Amino acid sequence: MCNYYKKLFTCTHISNTLVERCRPACAPNTPTCAPTHHDDPATWDASLITHARTSIFACFECLKAEAYAERNASISTAAAAEKDPVKRAEMMKAVDVYAVKAAKAVKAEGKAKLEAVKEWNWKKEADVPP
Ligand SMILES: [Zn+2]
Ligand SMILES: [Zn+2]
After folding, report:
1. What is the 3-state secondary structure (H, E, C) of 27-86?
2. Using one digit for the tens of pLDDT, what is the confidence trace for 2-16?
3. Ligand nearest 34 Cα, by number?
4. What pLDDT digit, counting tens, does each position of 41-87 carry?
5. What is the pTM of this model?
6. Ligand 2 centre from 104 Cα, in Å?
7. Residue ranges per structural domain of the chain
8. Which ligand is nearest to the CA of 9?
9. I need a labelling partner for 44 at 20 to 30 A (CA). Which of 14, 52, 59, 84 fits?
10. What pLDDT shows up at residue 38?
11. For residue 16, how far is its CA from the centre of ligand 2 (angstroms)?
């Protein structure tokens, strides 16, 4: 017999009706068993709600709303920093420091490659018998 249930999320929202399939209903193209007491859909729904299983999560809509709120907050913080001249200067300085570091790294890499080529040429010359 398939088991119908609802979930009670931590945000106190209640899920749609979910079904736990019984073993025979797990076979492909097999419909789920009809609920045993479905003569009055409203009563059945109410009983599913009173026996709702507790979830340890908030519902999808609430999680989504929270994620959007977080994203919007970070965007407005960034926008505020952009408008504040002091914070803007700090940001520009950070970018400059990063650019200088990157340029140094590229230069060091180029130097290392040049040294490697020089060493290789020197070795090649040394190999040549007099
Ligand atoms: Zn079943
Ligand atoms: Zn919710």
Report:
1. CCCCCCCCCCCCCCHHHHHHHHHHCCEECCCCCHHHHHHHHHHHHHHHHHHHHHHHHCHH
2. 999 999 999 999 999
3. 1
4. 888 899 999 999 999 999 999 999 999 999 999 998 888 888 888 88
5. 0.55
6. 51
7. 3-54, 85-130
8. 2
9. 59
10. 66
11. 12
